[in-house]
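Bench notes, afternoon.
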Amino acid sequence: MENIPSLKKIYEDYFTIGSAVSTETITRHQDLLKKHFNSLTAENEMKFEHIQPEEGVFTFERGDQLVQFAKEHHMQMRGHTLVWHNQTPDWVFKNRQGEKASREELLSRMKAHIFTVMERYKGKIGCWDVVNESIADEGGRLLRESSWLEIIGENFVEKAFQFAHQADPNAKLFYNDYNESHPEKREKIYTLVKSLVDKNIPIHGIGLQGHWNIAEPSIEHIHMAIEKYAALGLEIHFTELDVSVFEWDDKRTNITAPTERMLEQQAKRFEEMFTLFRDYRSVITNITFWGTADDYTWLDDFPIKGRKNWPFLFDEYHRPKASFYKVVDF
């Protein structure tokens, strides 16, 4: 591994290269992280249910470990995430009697959470995914159904960004979502973010997750999405990049290793994607993989239970794959 190029050095004039990590993987993948990455995102440790499992009870220990690792190895830290419909404890949306909280109660809790978390990491975390996945996937509705929307109303997104900016005026604030390159959802994400920009809500960037596979989305759709979002004048981060070796509807669970065909298709996809990313270096400022190597990925068992996946540039033994060389050789 010592003789291969460093991702972060290859791309130092383009964008930072990130990985989503946990307190376990900063040990398991330590050598890869130190050599190839200069940006980290907490995969789960900074989500609401982990940081404030009970009202007023903050458990920062695991998040602190990740921030300290980033500091020791001169890496940037991305904060993920402050307001999300998932992985948020039920107590957040209930009053003391166990009934639905009022709008005022929920706004107060949102503000308190954002301020407590962001003030702790002020100067240590330079950008945050403030609101995550609030767009409806299908149909005419812009925002997905959630307790945030039901109780606060449509301006819960605006409120979150306003609170975040008040808590840390120097932090860059991002809206983050998936299926960002699918035409229908692309238009919705653009509509939401443009509305924030038009209202002078403090937002500095769009996080495009990039949970893709060897077939979808097309490189044309990715290109069109970048063009569309770039027109808003904000920074673009690809925040959760992985490329499954299975197409979405492939239900096979009996494959114990990726086939040569899979690896060839994956390598071609990574080559096309990073060629495109380099062309937009003026607006893309970070590429973060949702993991580091194939021995650990959230795609194991998702969306097909019992199915192993191999979505990264490094294999289960932390060796560079054909995809790695397609990304660094240009």
